[in-house]
Amino acid sequence: xxxxxxxxxxxxxxxxxxxxxxxxxxxxxxxxxxxxxxxxxxxxxxxxxxxxxxxxxxxxxxxxxxxxxxxxxxxxxxxxxxxxxxxxxxxxxxxxxxxxxxxxxxxxxxxxxxxxxxxxxxxxxxxxxxxxxxxxxxxxxxxxxxxxxxxxxxxxxxxxxxxxxxxxxxxxxxxxxxxxxxxxxxxxxxxxxxxxxxxxxxxxxxxxxxxxxxxxxxxxxxxxxxxxxxxxxxxxxxxxxxxxxxxxxxxxxxxxxxxxxxxxxxxxxxxxxxxxxxxxxxxxxxxxxxxxxxxxxxxxxxxxxxxxxxxxxxxxxxxxxxxxxxxxxxxxxxxxxxxxxxxxxxxxxxxxxxxxxxxxxxxxxxxxxxxxxxxxxxxxxxxxxxxxxxxxxxxxxxxxxxxxxxxxxxxxxxxxxxxxxxxxxxxxxxxxxxxxxxxxxxxxxxxxxxxxxxxxxxxxxxxxxxxxxx
Length: 470
Known about the structure:
It is a single chain. By secondary structure, this protein is of the alpha+beta class. The protein has 14 helices and 17 strands. Strands 1, 2, 3, 4, 10, 11, 12 and 13 form an 8-stranded antiparallel β-sheet that branches.
């Protein structure tokens, strides 16, 4: 017997996960707008709950849950793992990129080298599996639970049912979202890595980032949020989940919104994984006719309203999720819900973006960059003392500050003593995607020039920090 969810107008509950005091740039006024937005959206759509995580300036600034997680759990909590479904694809795709780094495969390998019995396997590349350009027919295009999914399945069962069908088109000529292609990709990961997909992801990504994923099949229990469905405008009901095995590498993960935000921060910072892998994942795949729809390797990329984004959504039985990164703003928005029947994730993502992101300058206007003189002085003082916070540097800047460079900076600057003056010269200007800021320093009777480049924003990492004689 399915249980009806209590009316949200009388059962709405809010709870928050605290973050360090140093990472609290959400103002009281913004918090009020956020609470009002989520409360109204849940009430309007009758989606039982939402869990959100907001990143600003490359830091988690808010993780908060609203509504009812399930009849047994009651109020939603920020630590609860929601099903992120197809947002898992970016992790599967990154696993293949990492295995390519390890020399265990090439994304240009043909599928037949790794998995036998796939239609067109001698023509489809691993890259085409990840970019949805393989021609393999999707086994779950429906927005509801089909009868076949009421019985357990193994990945090979999905391959036998769908990957042996004739291709829908020649590989590389068209784009068609294909969960089937990602099931094949997951089998490739396991064969090349010599371990399960989940084990490989935990070892290379999740454990280093402090992410605690749950297999989606294991989250279909009373210990996790329940998924809800609705027929037309009828009552909101607990949805019957699929049997085990159906999402696999196409959408096998559940996690909290703040855990998914950790992945977003790594993307923004280009940390943990090679920067070229992050970039490769985000480059849109080109069809043979030279066109693209913006989908890369497990994520979509594009520009909307003058703002660049990296994006993916997820849908499983009873759950919808949206994960969007704004790399130039060093911001990200995660929205997880346990209702499959509305556009609440889109409404919330757009509304939250309007609250937490800075306005996009009109064409022809100059973006005013924040003053960073205090931090620049702090970095200078640290160099004079032989200290350097490498997390505040890009990969290039970290490469510049070798042991030899650090030793020379320390010995030469320490000899001058503390600066008598440290003054910004000129105004910030853009160059090569970075913000150039220059300073005049007087120390030990000498006048020095400091030339810096940094990522945009108040917390952008330093790309260059060079001191020289004036």
